[in-house]
Amino acid sequence: MQIQVLKSKIHRVKITQAELHYVGSITIDEDLMDAANLIANEKVQIVNINNGERLETYVIKGERGSGEVCLNGPAARKAQVGDIVIIISYAGMELEEAKNYTPKLIFPDEQNKLI
């Protein structure tokens, strides 16, 4: 039996841009992606601290070192620039593997840089 468990989380990162007229997704600084063990096209859940919105989308690589976190397409209506969000990914694992799995959690600073 497989269960879904927390794989990784970028905790309390700031939205730097929102592009409504884009195909869709969330663009994330590649440094943050690497630190959180996220890859391009991976499904993520976005939880907005400011307004309680939750949505699912996929990741696009942003410019490394830029601090960029941009909601694209319809997701841009779910947050404003400056909102604080949590970006979460999950993975399916066998129960016994999940019991010993340690998720990758990162806590960027106020400029979306790694601490």
Can you give a write-up of this model?
The structure is a single chain. This protein has helices spanning 30-35, 95-100; strands spanning 2-14, 17-19, 25-29, 43-48, 54-62, 69-72, 84-94, 104-106. It has a single domain (2-91), classed as Barwin-like endoglucanases (Beta Barrel). It is globular and about 40 Å long. With 115 residues, it is mainly beta. The model has no long low-confidence stretch (mean pLDDT 97). The longest helix is centred in the N-terminal third of the chain and has 6 residues, at 30-35. The chain is built from 2 helices and 8 strands. The chain has an 8-stranded mixed beta sheet with strand order 2-6-3-5-4-7-1-8. A hairpin with a 5-residue loop joins strand 4 (43-48) and strand 5.
Question: How does the SSE layout of this entry go?
Answer:
Elements: E1 2-14, E2 17-19, E3 25-29, H1 30-35, E4 43-48, E5 54-62, E6 69-72, E7 84-94, H2 95-100, E8 104-106
Parallel strand pairs: 1-8, 2-6, 3-5
Antiparallel strand pairs: 1-7, 3-6, 4-5, 4-7
